[in-house]
Sequence to fold (98 residues):
Amino acid sequence: MSDQTFLRVLCHKCHKPVSLKSGTVADENGETIHEQCYVNESEPLSENARLIELYALTAEEQDPKKLVDLVQQMNQLLSVKEERVKASMPIPLPTAKG
Ligand SMILES: [Zn+2]
Fold:
């Protein structure tokens, strides 16, 4: 007996059915998309979504080794982001003392 038909969702990118259980993310427009399709887009905007996803995964992960791996992925993303933010920041004006 299958009652999952109405739950079928198509990937916004490749238009193939996606499983809502795993390997699926919603992009910045709230469209369902395969995680792999999403990663392939590799737009700066998706970085935030990836961080949010990793953060959600760390909250649920029970395996310490996987947890470390997730944290490392987050650190890597954050360091990349940090570099980009630093590069795009205006040069701070020197603050006058006194
Ligand atoms: Zn897809």
